[in-house]
Amino acid sequence: MNEMSPPEPVARAEGKWWPSALEPGEKTKWLIFRIWDWLSLSLPSTSKVMFRQKLTGLEVARLVQPDSEGKVDRALIERRIASLRAKAESPMHRGEWRLVNEIELLVVGLWDLPTMRVEAKRQLFDAQALCLPGAAEYATEIEASHDDEDAMRATLFRLVLDVQDRFRKRHLLREYVAAYTARVSLIFGLSTTFFMALIITLAWMAQAHITSLFFAEQTGIGPPAPPPPGGMRAFSSFYVALAAGLFGAAFSMMAQTKKRVEKSTLENMRTNARFSMLFFRLGVGIGAAMILYFVFDTEFLGQGALTPTLTEVGFEVSTQTTALFTSIGGLSPNRDLSLLMLWSFVAGFSEVLVPSILKHAESSVNRG
């Protein structure tokens, strides 16, 4: 189940999954939900999944519990299994592992002792492959209950439940990794597009401004005021710095994706994959670029070959007419604009400090 899940129930119509009992206008909203989920941008609702798992485990445990005579109500279990199978095979139902897991738990109450011994070996193999904590203890309990059917059934039921829980968490982790990767890719694409669009727009504005001033000089029409340095309004460089910081933060997130998902736990991915956390990282990168801009503005670092002069940030007419970078109205970024974009881009990489910031904040709260 996802955070952004479409209305239920759903029914098959004309070869497609469509929501039943919905107005025609609501189908557009439902389709947007589906596309959002198809792009892997939605996150699974872990709390709902774990709640259903716990509730299912308690319900099945009650059904497979022997009565006062030590017998299991096989008829009740078989009716429940038949009901679940009919529900799973219904064309109006989407396949869910939840039903399969519940049936797997129910059949534990139907097995005889030899069958449970065989199944216990298989479940122990899965538990060891999944590095399930307590797998050795389960092996000891199963060996001790080798000839006790009730004890074997109780132990096997708990083992199956724990193995299912492990598989479910691993599946949830894969979904979170997919959503995190898709969201970071989307943010990187939008940030890159925004940064490029801003630079191109400013270049065209500068080219139009320089052209109008040249026309005024040639015709004598218009104000004689000289253009700003570089043919660009000086404070526009502030927006360039913010956009470059945004681009740098998005690039850093993209470059760190593989490292962050390789050894992540489910809890870590639940936090890192949320848009709020991703925007927080972007905000840190933008903030660092903003501070760096004002550092350059105050000339705190002095004037040198590696620091930009903000009053000179802009575009220049290139003398190399065959150069590729002259394709934007015949202009190219001057040295100061290039340095500002470079340093702001590097400042965006400060988003990697977010984990240490959160850890420091958490420790402060714990001390308080």
Automatic annotation (TrEMBL):
Lineage: superkingdom? Bacteria
The entry's keywords:
Membrane, Transmembrane, Transmembrane helix
Membrane-crossing ranges are 176-205, 234-254, 275-296, 340-358
- The protein in question is named Uncharacterized protein
Q: Which organism is it from?
A: Pikeienuella piscinae
